[in-house]
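Sample intake sheet
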Amino acid sequence: MSVETSTVLNHSDFGGGYRLIELESPAVASKVVAGQFIHLKVPQLDGGVLRRPFSIFKADEKALSVLYKIVGRGTRAMGTINTGDRISIIGPLGNGFPDADKESFPVLVAGGYGVAPLYLLASRMVEKGILFVGGRSGIDILCVDMFLELGWEVQIATEDGSTGIKGFVTAALDDWLANRDDQIAPEFFVCGPDGLLKAIGERSVAAGRKGWLSLDKHMGCGVGACLACVQKIRTSDGAEVWKRVCKDGPVFESREIVWG
């Protein structure tokens, strides 16, 4: 983990209310594991003492980028950030996704901009798999062409039917699972809202397959000190304990999570 003052290389519209910010950040970017996040201090946020957590979308040896949606005061204030500005970040934070098992077939499932950390994961995987991505409408479906360029298959579901099949992304996944080759052993990597995480977690447990779920909790400090983002976890001996999503997660295996 490093604290770094980063230079904004680019800040642009990504479409549909989403924005992309690229930061020159060699101390942080070079250490990133897919699924980790940064804590960013938003400038021009009057009275905003706490930093904001953002999943990492892309990272190389010198720079990283964040894909975010304007949803509240903090992200609206980020609109004041310009190319060339200097902003403070802490990272990389948390535990990201593990490497896929060699004998498994990677299945990525994303809800909305939960696709962002999964793109970094897909770009680093040797084995190409399939991405299922869902959203309310077509405007919420992001990065499809980028996954296709990596050599991944993509299936899309939208609640209004404007893009892909009409319905929840779990329906598309269930159809694929029911009709897949028996030789394909799926391993799930998931990022999105709690309802999606729980649904895919239940499917992975029922199938006896690993499911890696990236939890999204409100975070205060981002480093495990404030205990604002705890999640009940089942240990290997069956005990139930509280874990910090920012420090011990955000990625947990589906059999570990005790849903409230």
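Comment: The first strand starts at residue 2 and ends at 15. Residues 8 and 74 are 17 Å apart (CA to CA).
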